[in-house]
Amino acid sequence: MVATTSRSKPRRSDNTNTNEQLAEVLGRLANTLNANQTPRPNTNSRGTKAHIPDTFSGTEPDKLNNFLFQCRLYFCANLAQFNMDIVKINFAMTYLTGVAQDWFEVGLNQEDQGILQDWLSDWNLFVDELHRHFGLSDPVGEAANMLDNLRMKPGDKISTYNVDFMCYASQLGWGNSVLCYCYYQGLPNRIQDSISTQEQGKPTSFQDMYALAMTINHCYWERDCERHHARQVEKEALESHSQK
Question: Which of 65, 169, 189, 191 has the highest count of CB atoms within 10 angstroms of its CB?
Fold first, then answer.
C-alpha cells in the first residue's frame, strides 16, 4: 500500500540531484547486505551472460512488461547476486528514469520520516506498484484488441506470428475453440487455403490448427527454396551456354 504524502506534487529537482539522492538512499538500504551480494554485471566469461535492462521512464506503459522481463533475465543469469528481493528492487530502481524514478523517489525519501513502503523489500509488491502506476490501464482489453487485429503478413515467417499470438493469448482466458478461430483468421491466404482444403476439414482445436499451420508453412518455404535453387541453376546454365 502506498503511503500518502502531504505534498500535492512530488518535489522535482535537476537530474544530477535526483540521481545523487537515489544513490544515497539505495546505499543506506544496501548497508545490511554483504558486499559480495551487491549487483554487478556478470563478467565471468564461462558463465551465462545477459544484457542489462533498458531504462524505463513510465511514459510508455506498453514497455513495462519488457523492462520487467529483461530484469528477470538478468537475475536468472546472476542468481548468486540476486538471491534477495531487496537486491532485485535496488537494481531495478537504478534503471528507472523520468516520472517513474520521481514516483519511487518520493517513497524512498519517506524513509527519513519513518515511513517504510512494503515494496522496498518485496519484489512482487514492487512489480505491482510499477503496474499500478505505469502499466496498461486495461492489459486484458489491450491484449484482446491486439490479438483480434493480429495478422501474419504474406512474406513473414510464421515464428514471428506465433510469438505475438502466444504473448497476447497468454493474458486471456479464452477457450480452445476461440483461440483456434483467432489463430486461423490471422494466417495469410497461402496457409488458409491449404488448411481449408484438407480432406478431414479444418482442425477444431488450437493445438491441431497450430501444428498443421506450422507444417504447411515449412513445406511452403522448403518449396520456395527449391524454386529459387532451380532458377539459379537455370540462370547459370544459360550464362554458360551464352559464353560458349
Answer: 191
Q: Are residues 144 and 161 in the same domain?
A: yes
CA–CA separation, 57 and 98 (whole Å):
5
Q: Which residues pair with 96 in a beta bridge?
A: 56
- In eight-state DSSP terms, residue 187 is S
Query: Is 175 found in the same domain as 99?
Result: no
For residue 96, give the DSSP letter.
B
pLDDT, tens digit, 9 for 90 and up, residues 97-133? 999 999 998 888 887 787 888 898 999 999 999 999 9
| Of residues 176, 175, 157, 138, the one with CA closest to residue 220 | 157
Condensed to tens digits (0 to 9), the pLDDT of residues 190-236 reads: 999 999 999 888 999 999 999 999 999 988 878 878 877 778 777 77
Flag whether 153 is in a domain. Answer: yes
Collapsed DSSP state (helix, strand, coil) of residue 115: coil
Cβ neighbourhood burial of 50 (10 Å; 0-12, 13-18, 19+):
middle
d(CA 93, CA 26): 9
